[in-house]
Design goal:
Elements: E1 5-12, E2 27-28, E3 38-42, E4 45-48, E5 51-54, E6 58-66, H1 69-80, E7 83-84, H2 96-103, H3 125-140, E8 170-177, H4 181-188, H5 194-207, E9 212-222, H6 227-243, E10 247-255, E11 265-275, E12 293-298, H7 307-317, E13 324-325, E14 328-332, H8 333-337, H9 345-353, E15 359-362, H10 367-371, E16 380-385, H11 393-402, H12 406-412, E17 417-423, H13 428-437, E18 442-450, E19 458-461
Parallel strand pairs: 9-10, 16-19
Antiparallel strand pairs: 1-6, 2-7, 3-6, 4-5, 8-11, 9-11, 12-17, 12-18, 13-14, 15-17, 16-18
Helix pairs in contact: 3-6, 5-6, 9-13
Length: about 475
């Protein structure tokens, strides 16, 4: 390769050339210099206990060489995109005058006589094609039956007869996203688990209706398509689909540079499932009565809700996301908070087949106090005893560090309970046994009592225990 052109893009600290912060952790993707003739040069950096940190205004420089200027520029920007630290910024107009002069000596991209391309508008068709080709096998790995489609088509179709539904079933669909948890994945430059969260949010939702998840469609909107990031995200989605016994039938990827911040992305998905002929949709509100038991299935942490508040609490604490987590020193703050949302499909489907559950509530945004009432009749309310389970230390830390009121904690976070089931007293032992055989930790957290007209649908008692 003859490298006639060379481009350098400098990553500067926020505030530079004025006052700027030092000591922010730096992450550099291991594949940053994977392309030939690319280099990352250190300037304002230092190491503290082995960790790379910012120590100057001009922090790092990404340099790339190529046969032509446009290729070198593209490689340099691809390299700089794999460097991350708080407040980092860099110029986006490097070499634009030279490119304009080289391609059209007497013109620029603002003139109507200059041919524009999709690439000059910020969208790479080649990157999109590469992504599709690389994730086809990931989608295929989730296949439970013939979907009549493959990644790369215009849509996803499922043959319900091939899935074993010889009579027309009830179809259930849901749509959701991962919210600002993706911001943490971006900050930590770890994208291979956020897809599990995406699957969990939609699969767990339709599961509460008694439906078996069958297929999922995702949307991945980016500032600019980064193939490696995209593949990592879809690896997580495929992993989640396998856990949910669900097919990844297709999806959509878009570059939205004018809408989404540089380096960021937005993930959403829809999941569809079915109930076999003769099965009733949950919840069975008419069958619920006073004395029914509330069983809680433990969560893996905050799951995918409350992260806007989590970000604010951690940032205000001054604790770097790369530092050891106060609630679990064996891992970092960021990695602990990226623990994927639990997927409850395999544990709950056997219960539904035996008609052992009257209702199921996925504890997401709104916490226990707003999600449990969604499955209850107007004449009943849930009484939840906070002393009945051990609240994970991460929630205790968030409450204390953020000085968050207990009532706010109960309506924002799951507090360690990711799914709540309404079960008749006589079925509690059998339900618990089946759940534990499927690897779930089950806690009896309360029961149903009468509700006065206009009364609240859920009361959490003894929340003071969260301060202990």
């Amino acid at each position: 390769c003859k490298a006639d052109s060379c481009v350098t893009v400098v990553a500067a600290a926020g505030g530079y050339p004025g006052s700027y912060k030092k000591g922010d952790p730096i992450t550099i993707d291991a594949k940053a210099c994977e392309a030939k003739y690319t280099h990352v040069f250190h300037a304002g950096t230092s190491r503290t206990s082995g960790a790379l940190e910012t120590a100057g205004g001009r922090v790092l420089a990404a340099t790339a060489a190529a046969p032509d200027l446009e290729s070198a520029l593209s490689k340099a920007y691809q390299t700089i995109s794999k460097i991350h630290f708080e407040g980092m910024y860099y110029r986006k107009d490097i070499a634009h005058r030279a490119l304009s002069h080289h391609s059209h000596p007497a013109s620029n991209h603002d003139r109507q006589d200059v041919p524009l391309t999709y690439a000059s508008a910020g969208v790479s068709i080649d990157a999109g094609t590469e992504l599709v080709n690389r994730i086809k096998s990931l989608a295929a790995s989730t296949r439970q039956f013939d979907t009549k489609s493959s990644i790369g088509g215009f849509g996803g179709q499922v043959d319900l007869a091939a899935a074993g539904y010889d009579q027309a079933p009830i179809i259930s669909s849901g749509v959701d996203g991962v919210g600002t948890k993706s911001r943490l994945a971006i900050r930590m430059n770890k994208h291979d688990t956020i897809g599990i969260d995406l699957v969990a949010m939609v699969a767990n939702d339709i599961l509460t209706e008694g439906a078996e998840p069958l297929w999922l469609m995702d949307t991945m909107n980016m500032h600019k398509l980064d193939v490696e990031t995209g593949v990592s995200i879809v690896e997580g989605i495929a992993n989640g689909c396998i856990q949910a016994n669900c097919n990844l039938a297709g999806g959509e990827t878009a570059e939205l540079g004018d809408i989404i911040r540089e380096g960021h992305y937005i993930l959403d998905a829809s999941c569809s499932g079915a109930l076999r002929k003769g099965r009733k949709l949950l919840p069975w509100k008419d069958d619920m009565e006073k004395g029914d038991v509330l069983l809680g299935l433990t969560s893996s942490g905050p799951h995918s809700n409350g992260y806007s508040l989590i970000h604010k609490i951690v940032e205000r604490s001054g604790l770097p996301f790369s530092s050891p987590a106060p609630w679990n020193p064996s891992t970092s703050v960021g990695l602990s908070l990226l623990t994927p949302t639990k997927i409850y499909v395999r544990a709950l489907l056997p219960l539904f087949e035996k008609n052992l559950v009257k209702g199921a509530a996925h504890i997401t945004g709104g916490g226990l106090v707003e999600n449990i009432p969604r499955i209850l009749p107007t004449g009943l309310k849930a009484e939840v005893e906070a002393k009945s389970w051990s609240v994970p230390e991460v929630f205790r830390w968030l409450k204390k560090e953020g000085n968050v009121e207990k009532e706010e904690m109960a309506r924002v976070f799951n507090m360690g309970i990711g799914m709540v089931l309404v079960v008749a007293e006589g079925h509690v032992s059998e339900v618990t046994k089946i759940l534990e055989e499927n690897g779930e930790k089950v806690v009896r957290i309360g029961g149903l009592v009468g509700r006065e007209e206009g009364g609240v649908g859920c009361v959490v008692q003894d929340m003071e225990v969260w301060d202990q």
